[in-house]
Amino acid sequence: MAPPLSADFRVLSTFAGEHATAFAIWYFTRFVSRQPRRNVMGSSWSRPRCSRTALALGLVAVLAGCSISAASVLNTAPSSAKASSSRLAVGSVTLTTVSFTWNWVEQRPKTSPSARDSYAMAYDAATKQLILFGGEVPSGITAFDDTWLWTGKTWQKLSPKVSPPAGLMGAAMAYDASTRQLIMFGGNTNLGEHESTTWAWTGASWKKLKPKTSPPALSYAACAYDAKSKQVIIFGGNANRSPGTQQTWDWTGTTWKRLSPKESPPAADDGSMTYDQSTGILVLFGGFGKTSGTPSSETWTWSGENWTLKSPKPTPPARGGAAIAFDDSTNQLLMFGGIGKGDGGTQSLGDTWEWSESGWFVPRPPNHPSGRFTSMTFDASTKQLVLFGGGSLSSDKDFNDTWLWEDQQS
After folding, report:
1. Tens of pLDDT along 346-397?
2. For the domain bounded by 104-409, which CATH number is listed?
3. Going by C-beta distance under 8 Å and a sequence separation of 6 or more, which residues neighbour residue 206?
4. Where are the domains of the chain?
5. pTM
6. Coil/strand/helix, residue 409
């Protein structure tokens, strides 16, 4: 799959497309059109001479202008919620550019998990299942140990013979393509006890693994698979009720290995991390700091051995608990929502951001879920970017709605 164009090139292509079309129309009407024009030296009307060369160049200009204009619309679509459509008539032929609208579309599944936040969700490529496990309600008194499958149209509750501890929330989950295992680590229970256990999903049940080495008991750690280095990476997390660790761990397939990068993000929990397939880079954004719990607006990338702090412009406002995923069908790395700081203190965010190598950009979809901290995952079997539920600190409310990110064409 070709990588997405940079923001600078998108702007250039849009400029070129608009001006190429304008030049084509001007050239056609100025030198090719057989319509009479006014003689600038007098009041008489005359017909211009039209050579075969001028006619050929005119047609080339028209077609090139339309092609560049259409290409500019298609190339800018992933970073723009709306790309205007236009038509150019040449004789009896009408050329039309495609209009794209990137949008969040709420679904109406017949069955859904109950309203919750802090669940674990990931796509298992080996079994072709999008799996959701656990979570809690805002009070923290009720937590879940149920396992759900997204079918593409609705949610299906599964009945595994073995399950992780009841009331598990804030667990880290990712698919390890190297070993073809869906791995889940840590989390804490509604009793406030942190877990350091590792689980694998078999397709029908959960299996408790016994690695020789494990990270400390953690919850709300950032976790993702780095396809380039073939590592399942865990960073940060809340350890033993002490917010924000600074440790980086790698799942080897049988055990956990603590890494020692020269540079590292500040200690934090609830950061958002995913793999950018278009650039082959693992991207980490935000999280809550160890000392004050203040949300971060830093963007870091993982090379396989070391962390690098980026300086993107623009950048999203500081936040933790945002949903992040790469949409393989639209070739976009997207981030939604989270918990940030507003004028009145803590604020649940409802904005959508797209990452590229040159910075973060706002697609501005016409519709979107309400502000919340949540999770989303790309389902490769259905080609859907799925966002489910989550919670709002602003309203002290959880949700059980399901949203898809779609490119709507007209």
Report:
1. 899 999 999 998 899 999 899 999 999 999 999 999 999 999 999 998 888 9
2. 2.120.10.80
3. 147, 160, 162, 163, 164, 184, 199, 200
4. 7-98, 104-409
5. 0.77
6. strand
